[in-house]
Amino acid sequence: MFTRVIKYSNKYFDLFNLIENITDARQKPQIATSDIAASILSILFSSLGSLNKFNTSRNFSSVGNLTGRIPSASTIARAADTIDVESLRKILKSIYLKAKRSKMIEPIYGKYIGIIDGHEICSSEIHWCSGCSARNVSGIEGKIKLNYYHRYTAFILAGPRFCFMLDIEPIYPNEGELSSAYRLLERACRDYPKAFEVVVGDGLYLNGTTFNLLASHGKYAAAVLKDETRQLYEEAVSLCGIVNPVIYTDENTLYKVWDHTIDGLWDSYKKPIRVIRSEEIKTVRHHSKDLGKWGYLEEKADWYWVTSLPSVVGLKNVVPVCHSRWQIENGCFNEIVNTWNADHVYRHSGNAIVAFILFLFIVLNIFNIFFARNIKDKRVRSKIFLIDLIRAEFILAKWIYPIPL
Ligand SMILES: [Zn+2]
Asked: What distance in angstroms lies between residue 127's CA and the mean position of ligand 1's atoms?
């Protein structure tokens, strides 16, 4: 399966030609950056989990490193410290363009939806680098116990079968998520001008700067409204009291939805916006106490969002567009940890962390398309099993070149 996924990456995305353009700042390197990149891609496609496991696999090969082109774990780590992350972003873009042209990227609810959110990784009390953020976690007055961590904002495209990872931006020490998100969104609007029509974020993104930035690029915004002290929230609640909701059922959920256009209540965003409230009652089936019978439980939720989406986008589409925000939790952050074992960082330095996530995004995009479109074998039902098959072949390969085929 390792051979299949590598050949697929080359045939459809030209991946191993694209990596020829990656550079790093090592002085007089013995091993080319492209060979290091090829090794990193092998490690990630096989989800090895650590550079040491890569060394073990490399030493296991009976052929050995005859060509001298296979890097050691420490060489990979050193190169990752200075690898040019812009060249990785260019590869991601090239993969996106090829996937889009081949109709591998599909809209969801009739829209191309971008999702943005912040995420924290490699929280530790012992391991730190010069780029770490730090916080005091002692909880005792006058005592300091530091916890170190890195954070980044991620931007992805929602999709009906998988999400497509576009870019990340570090959140530097002493800055907020929104500062990083601003840089990320600006770059996304510049590099992917036609990839998305609307950007969805959590309550933090209900922010004039974000809405204005997106509007200046001709994009719509949607964000969760949860701040009950805000004038917008009060207005929405009072309007819901005097207007009847639209009621409909979709699958096993009953929706009561209110949609109000409000103007002049948000100082930092001057245009009219829509405030959507969705009261949802989901019926969930569970095993009853009586053997062999089903019981039913109702789960209730009450959502408020603010969006600049125009009213031609009807309610039955606006609500799922706003809910698609969950894809960044489920299809990106959780999947990175649960399916790809990437809660552990391969190399702890500011540049290496960004580089490894961008490499992982390259791998995830190709892997998700490969899994959705090319795995006809019904026995390969889960991504984890497919990764196991890839890893098994990778470990047993005869290693002469960085991509052992
Ligand atoms: Zn650090």
From this structure: 7
